[in-house]
Amino acid sequence: MRITAVETLYLAGGITVHAGPIQWLWVKIHTEDGLYGLGETYPAPGAEEAVIHGRLAARLLGQDAGRIEGLWASMFDAVSYSGWAGAEMRAISAVDTALWDLKGKALNTPCYELLGGATRDRIRTYNTCYDHISFNDEPVRLAESLLDSGIRGMKIWPFDSIAKVTGGNYITPTQIKEAIRPLRLIKEKFGAQMEVAMEFHGYWSLPCAIQIAKACEEFQPMWLEEMLGQDNMAAYRELASSTHLPLTISERLMTTWQYRELLANGAARVVMPDVAWCGGLTQAKKIADMGAAHYLPVAPHNCGGPILHAATMHLAAAVPNLYIAESVRRHYADEYIPIVGELAIPKDGFFDLPNGPGLGMDLAPEVLTRPGLHRRVSE
Fold first, then answer.
1. 116, 204, 232, 336: most buried, per Cβ within 10 A?
2. Which CATH class is domain 3-108+365-378?
3. Which residues pair with 377 in a beta bridge?
4. What is the pLDDT of residues 237-295, one digit of tens each?
5. Phi-psi label, residue 158: left if phi above 0, alpha if psi -120 to 50, beta otherwise
6. Span 113-352: which CATH code?
């Protein structure tokens, strides 16, 4: 199963979603027998495309596509000398995911079977609230809407607007009271019926993060996510020691090497790799296994495009230490459909195991004829 071509595709103007235009880069790995695998990364397709064709394609063309571990090591070798924890690793992640998809297609089996087989019959999910209903303006109505659809977990980020004003360097008691309002209203109305995760996007200084965490304790959120930037594990350890609430870290870390430091530090209570960034399914599975060795669960980050969504569900099906899988209702019920067609939706807060072979997903033919499609092939 020799690789004959490496193809990248993205829409130059992006795809308009809830937060505005976003660009997903898709990668197709073609083989001599006519099969191809599909991968994805984001959010800078020009940079990621350049790495794939300028650095990785030469390591892939003519090689056996089934030797995924060996190809991963070869791709890493191609970029490691000049630094790898950015567009380089996002590019490797997309290629690696495509290789898993391709191998699953060649063997006519779902990717989760290749990862060791299913460890559960269905996948628990929570909703990240890029929604038609605003969590700031109507938090109770949003929570009620999710509960009506069977989803019992949601993630919100009401502190972000304050951080953008203050630079994350200070926060007043009045600002804390206002930002915590959506969490308070949801918990007062629904109590334990709805779990609420708090996202902070790494915007806060350590003193502010400690203040905010203490204010959240009364309402017992599911976790506090990315309160600080991901580059100082000692600061995260100090934050963890200041609160009994669990910290979730970090979709922006890449490969087992960066997660090794996080796990050795002991600050995280939930580990959150992103398949499209951390090194693909090859690294995501290893990161989950490292978490299990520390008795920590994983909750994969899944806020990218539809191919990431599929890969995340295969990972979630296979890893024994899954806590919960992220999904975005507005994505799978609306915005992904023009790209890949109708998707499975969760029932009673759970996704069914994904169908194969491979990832079980492909780009709709209409995507390939859209104006502004940027396509590049290395052969």
1. 204
2. alpha beta
3. 7
4. 999 999 999 999 999 999 999 999 999 999 999 999 999 999 999 999 999 999 999 99
5. alpha
6. 3.20.20.120
